[in-house]
Amino acid sequence: MVLALLLIASADVAASRSVLDGGLRAAGRDAMLVQDPGAEVVISVEQLAEHVLLARVGDQPEIGQVILNNVVAIGASSGISVVDTGYFPQSAYRLRELLADALASESFEYVVNTHWHWDHHNGNQAFTDAAIIAHEGIVPALELFERDIDSFLAQRRERLSAWTQTLSSAAEGSPEALEARGWAFAHARFLQEVEAGYEVVYPDITFTDALTLRLRDLGEPLDVELLAMPSFHSDHDVLVVVPDEGVAALGDLFFPGEVPLISTDYVTDLSAFVRRMSEILAAYTSVDLFVPGHGRLMSRDEVVVMVRYLDEIVQAVEECRAADMDLTGAKRALSIENRFLFMHGLGDPATHEVNLETLWNGL
Ligand SMILES: [Zn+2]
Questions:
Q1: What is the sign of the dihedral through the CA atoms of 280, 305, 48 and 64?
Q2: Angle between helices 175-195 and 149-169 (to 10 degrees)
Q3: What fold is seen in the domain 4-145+200-300?
Q4: I want to staple 329 with a disulfide (CB 3.0 to 4.6 A). Which of 27, 169, 201, 325 is the partner?
Q5: 116 CA to middle of ligand 1, Å?
Q6: How much is the pTM?
Q7: What is residue 160's predicted lDDT score, i.e. its pLDDT?
Q8: Distance 86 CA to ligand 1 centre (A)
Q9: Domain map of the chain by residue range?
Q10: Rounded distance from Cα 266 to ligand 1 centre (Å)
């Protein structure tokens, strides 16, 4: 059975580029001296829908789940498609094996990267037999990432030593110790895996607006919709919807239980993002399970609340401005308690204050 690729908008096939000749085996060039962090990256796999699996890469509550990446796999008789490949380049080979076992197939058809952040594409190298698909805009971001890889690795080493220090001074069993142990493990393990071989693997196929992957399962079509979003978490986020299975992969658009951060780095038109999210929720009413890039699964209601928050905060700031308030007055009027009670208890309230300042000062 052959997978047909339906191009809704412009899609072009770029040459597959696996750069960094020989991978970052060469990165040993400035001798990382990474100590063996011990434990493996734990990967758990569970079924979400008839054809959809969730792999949790870094499913390690004992270190506070700090490295947890959610990977979605869609199994059809024609092959396996994977959404995001996690942070750890070598553990991705084990991820691949686990998915192949769980779906009883060795054939990987597509890999979709939801955005350019390293914890969503570092595992691509384990899936180079599949067609790797991403938004066209992530290519320059990956090039930049690759060009600066040495400083990225140096930063990981610095963080490793800082967290190791924090761990040594934190009280045994305290939340600080848990967090420090998690991050120290994450950085040590990552550096170790990079030493064992890492290359930045670019998409084979890029698109700009939307793309439908028409998988085939025993003769039946099983569509996977790739939907480019107006900038929000990054400059090129892609939402992945499997309508027939009632599942969507959010990438990092939303984090479960947290007020969404309006990033000054990327967001230029928040209303456009809200409109697009609302359109997607209205168009795919079958979807009631949302898989964020990290953390627990989200319900449709939770996603609706996130979108409502973004919609209302834009309007509310405008109203305060129209009423000639100053920022202090607006912050008081628009606090979680006074105006956004439906967001009460979600994450760090400071994020909401940051959002108010961001919108007040203009995107
Ligand atoms: Zn991200």
A1: positive
A2: 150
A3: Metallo-beta-lactamase; Chain A (3.60.15)
A4: 325
A5: 7
A6: 0.88
A7: 95
A8: 11
A9: 4-145+200-300, 150-195, 310-361
A10: 12
